[in-house]
Amino acid sequence: MDLEELKRIQQECAKKVVQKDDFQEIRTVGGIDLTFQDIRNNPTKAWASLVVIDINTLKPIYEDVVEGIVDFPYIPTFLAFRELPLMLSLHQRAKKKPDVYFIDGQGVAHPRGCGIASHFGVITQSVSVGVAKTKLFGYYKEPSTKRGSWSYLTYRGNILGAVLRTRDDTEPIYVSVGHRISLKTAIELVLKTSIYRIPEPTRLAHNLLQKVRKKLS
Fold this sequence. Notes:
alpha+beta, archaeoglobus fulgidus dsm 4304 fold, 5 helices, 8 strands, globular
């Protein structure tokens, strides 16, 4: 495993990211999430889920789960090399591909400008948004506690993403461009699809995986 080569791949990926709206219309949004049988072991069995919702009703219109073996270790900032293969399998077989994907992870808010959401978007040429529960990289001022409040996530004067409050008095989430979308539109989409702290596409994808795990245990 050559980390320097993987860094080079990420840097090349970052050059291909399109940070402007490059689509006709958004009618559906899909959320992708992963879970592992034993996150401490490697290799381990894992599952990836996709839930696609209607942008107006926020109701699911398609869902799918794939199972596979993950054999790349967990290394911070190299998440794509661990989780992307299963996500690509899920994307390839999906009978209903959404207009935009929300990925549980970072987009350009990454030390080398290509987190898993950007990596997924560039490889599949999909519109994608990074929607993370924790900060990986950068600095920000805490936004107001009111829903819809946000502040820029920055590093050395560059805007990496936004720290967005999706619900009153809850922890914010970290939104960044994945591919083929502007940060402004990404923020608007995440807020529009959020009832709870986590947007419905990724929240429902997570819940679907919990049902799978419960059924198997």
